[in-house]
Write a structure and sequence with these properties.
heterotrimer, A mainly alpha, B mainly alpha, C alpha/beta, A: mainly alpha, 12 helices, C: 2 domains, six-stranded mixed β-sheet, 10 strands, 24% strand
């Protein structure tokens, strides 16, 4: 496999993880535009551990992810009590605070960034994708997953049957933070160099766009959206300069014409029935 | 020295105020955020630059920025908000994220991702009041921004459009029944919000004399901060919020550290959201 | 023995307007009580106050003598007070069976059980009990259909089944007969009778006077936020103030 293809696949894998992290909270009907902040935490923590403290990759990645998850719990507690738009702005603020924090934090390089990380392989990235995806599917099948769906569909009705809506959202938020943190750790050790600008608002926005293009109703939508939007710029190479603009147009068009995204629950159900019949 | 910083702060803050007003207008009429609002600032900036490069005088560039940004805002309303008015609450806002990225990509397409400069205006006029030094550009910004703010305030309070805007914000159905066409009110509201942001973009370019296609991200966020601090839904609050943030930023750069500028601002933002989300001047809405 | 549910001097204002004013009543275990009144009388507000959706402005709500006013809807549901909604609030993406399944976890003390895999004995037992709620309303055969594809009457019954699945002792039903035809209304009456005889306590908001008069042992009448009458169907029918409130619509 040549280096170029490997690079595309590696970034695609990391994008899938970012999409999954955005999906986790979107699936409870809350929009987070700050997941790049969790990615940054995972990236910097794991990088510091592996480069400055000589930790092995696996424990460094794990602690990076867990730190992000812990911050997710801490930040989620006050922020999840905010309604609608306020929550979105709270996550925006969080993402920017993390970014500007690392921009100034000397022990991890400040504005000059951090270098010296290495070791992420394609296999590692996609192993993480597989594990997280499997966990999502298992959760979706358990009664706990039903509770999350109920919260998304109608949180007041969910409360009336004893579901602790804040707890469900908090758990989902921290879960998304964990995934973003792991994505950050993987990214840092693949890119060999990181600086705070790698974790800006556009990264958070793109993570969300992956999900809404692919379909916000199922976890597969997040995967499909990430794959398509990762490969699209490559496929558009023939458009040369107009590549990015075409990318933008497609996004806007899909949102206006098919806001539920490519994959819907109904499609998945039909697909499942089709597979059951042919089996 | 302090007086100078205050003047600088208010000048900067007045551009932030214009952005914040735009957010507030859209929020008031649709109860949703236009996340591409910052890009309207950028559209105004680049329009001003493009028109100035063609040799037009400053006032013409300003007008072009005003009109084009306003029109772009209407395009956003027709593309992202109107078709999705019956979809989920989040859908339109998600669509504006996509639209914002489209605008950034278009700007990169036409102007490149390197900073673009505003052609030299040749205005080197400086006013000296004791230790204060106010340049022509400062005066231009202050005059334009405050003029627009007062204008908006009057428009909202005294004209038919303003009444229709407030009526549609409070109760769209009744407003429609009374003949105020919500769609038309919404479109004009978007036009105004975008036009103001565009003017702010052009004015800021005059001060800093260079912009990039991604400048809208930060400016949009700062406008959001100003809106929340001033009081969500409160137009005058948005103006005060904008001025306040401008002062905070200038004071921070002068007396603290420019590197921490955004960290300070967004921390204040976060603190307000958690502890005082209604802002300094809560809007009284009839429940 | 303290009443199952008691309201003491309950008032609720919205922006300076009193939706309900100084309401007091109590409901004993096993009663089937009706709550009637003209439109805008405040009936749904009372439900929202009892179920914790709104906070009280004044007064208290007691459940078996313990104060529940001030608690949120989740905690009140977990105490055994279930409700349906006037404008049917089902879960768009869930099937009929999934509605009762997700409600089933309401009273269980073991909150981690909702992560348990399917095959375990305990889980199978929970699913069987959830199914019973569907059988009670006659929706068991449609269990795998999407709830939003059910006909209107079916959706109303599903809301009741979902409330039943939480193992409540008190059911607050907000206009369960709205939009039902005569046959469906008869089925509803039979269902509510059966539930009552099985020990459930029911507070029922309804506009269908025939249903209310035939079904309820006691009726509370609200008008403009105030409780204007409380008694047996015969007493309420004869009450002049009630008749005036309805302007002769009383049956």
């Amino acid at each position: 496999m040549n280096v170029y293809v490997e690079g595309v696949l590696a970034l695609m894998g990391i994008n899938i993880l970012l999409a999954l992290s955005a999906y986790a909270i979107l699936a409870t009907d809350r929009l987070s535009l700050g997941n790049a902040g969790f990615m940054a935490i995972g990236a910097y923590v794991s990088s510091y551990l592996s480069v400055n403290l000589g930790w092995g990759l696996l424990p460094a990645f794990a602690l990076g992810g867990l730190t992000a998850a812990a911050v997710g719990l801490l930040v989620g507690l006050p922020v999840l009590r905010l309604q609608g738009i306020y929550f979105v702005m709270g996550t925006l603020a969080f993402g920017e605070i993390v970014r500007t924090f690392f921009q100034n934090f000397e022990p991890t390089g400040g504005a000059y960034g951090m270098r010296g990380m290495f070791g992420t392989s394609l296999g590692m990235i996609y192993a993480c994708v597989a594990v997280f995806l499997a966990l999502f599917l298992a959760y979706g099948m358990a009664r706990a997953g039903l509770a999350a769906d109920a919260v998304r569909d109608d949180d007041e009705a969910a409360r009336s049957i004893g579901i602790n809506v804040v707890a469900v959202r908090l758990l989902s938020f921290a879960w998304g933070a964990l995934i973003a943190g792991v994505a950050g750790a993987l990214f840092a050790h693949y890119a060999l160099y990181i600086e705070s600008g790698n974790f800006n608002f556009l990264v958070s926005a793109n993570a969300v766009l992956f999900v809404i293009l692919g379909g916000v109703q199922t976890v597969w939508g997040a995967v499909v959206g990430a794959i398509i939007l990762s490969l699209l710029p490559e496929g558009f190479r023939f458009l040369a300069d107009w590549r990015l603009t075409a990318y933008g147009f497609i996004l806007v068009a899909v949102m206006a014409l098919r806001p539920e995204g490519i994959l819907t629950r109904g499609m998945l159900r039909s697909l499942r029935r089709l597979l059951a019949r042919t089996a | 020295m302090l007086a100078q910083q205050i003047v600088n702060g208010i000048t900067l803050g007045s551009t932030y105020a214009l952005i914040a007003i735009g957010y507030t207008l859209v929020l008031g009429v649709l109860n949703k955020l236009n996340i591409a609002h910052g890009e309207l600032f950028m559209v105004g900036a680049f329009t001003g630059i493009a028109v100035a490069r063609m040799g037009a005088p400053l006032a013409v560039s300003l007008l072009a920025a005003f009109v084009l940004a306003g029109l772009m805002a209407v395009v956003i309303e027709r593309t992202c908000f109107y078709p999705l008015r019956n979809a989920s609450f989040l859908s339109p806002m998600l669509s504006t994220i996509a639209f914002g990225i489209l605008l950034q990509n278009l700007a990169t397409q036409f102007f490149g991702s390197d900073p673009s400069r505003f052609p030299d205006t040749g205005a080197s006029f400086q006013l000296s009041l004791g230790t204060l030094s106010v340049s022509a550009i400062h005066i231009a910004i202050l005059a334009t921004a405050f003029g627009l703010m007062i204008g908006i305030d009057l428009l909202v309070r005294r004209t038919r459009w303003g009444i229709a805007l407030r009526a549609t914000s409070d109760d769209p159905e009744t407003a429609a029944q009374q003949g105020m066409h919500p769609s038309r009110v919404t479109m004009t509201t978007f036009f105004v919000s975008g036009a103001l942001a565009g003017v702010a973009g052009m004015l800021t370019t005059l001060v800093y004399s260079q912009v990039t296609p991604h400048i809208g991200i930060r400016q949009g966020l700062i406008g959001m901060v100003a809106m929340v601090i001033g009081g969500l839904g409160n137009l005058r609050g948005a103006m005060i919020g904008g001025l306040a943030i401008g002062l905070v930023e200038t004071m921070n750069d002068a007396y603290f550290s420019a590197g921490y500028r955004d960290l300070v601002i967004f921390s204040i933002f976060f603190a307000f959201l958690i502890f005082k989300p209604e802002g300094l001047f809560p809007a009284h809405r009839s429940s | 023995m303290s009443a199952l549910l008691e309201l003491r001097a309950v008032s609720k204002g919205f922006g300076g307007v009193l939706a309900v004013e100084n309401i007091s009543f109590s409901i004993a275990q096993g009663e089937l009580v009706g709550l009637i009144g003209p439109n805008g009388a405040g009936k749904t507000t009372v439900f929202n106050l009892v179920s914790g959706v709104h906070a009280l402005s004044e007064g208290e709500v007691l459940h078996r003598g313990a104060r529940i006013s001030g608690s949120g809807p989740t905690r009140i549901a977990r105490r055994g007070i279930a409700r349906t909604f006037q404008n049917i609030r089902l879960f768009r993406s869930l099937t009929v069976f999934e509605h009762v399944l997700v409600a089933q976890a309401c009273r269980s003390a073991n909150r981690l059980a909702q992560f348990s895999p399917f095959g375990t004995v305990a889980e199978i037992d929970r699913r069987r009990r959830a199914l019973e709620a569907l059988e009670a309303v006659g929706l068991a055969q449609r269990r795998d259909e999407l709830a939003m594809h059910l006909p209107y009457g079916g959706q109303r019954r599903l809301e009741i089944a979902r409330a039943l699945a939480t193992s409540p002792e008190l059911l607050l039903l907000d206009e369960p007969a709205a939009g039902l035809n005569d046959t469906e209304t008869d089925d509803l009456r039979t269902l509510l009778d059966t539930l009552c005889s099985r020990g459930f306590t029911i507070l029922l908001v309804e506009h269908d006077m025939k249903l209310v008069m035939r079904l309820c042992s006691r009726i509370l009448v609200l008008n403009s936020g105030r409780l204007i009458a409380s008694g047996t169907p015969a007493e309420v029918r004869a009450n002049q103030e009630v008749i005036d409130a309805y302007l002769g619509v009383a049956n």
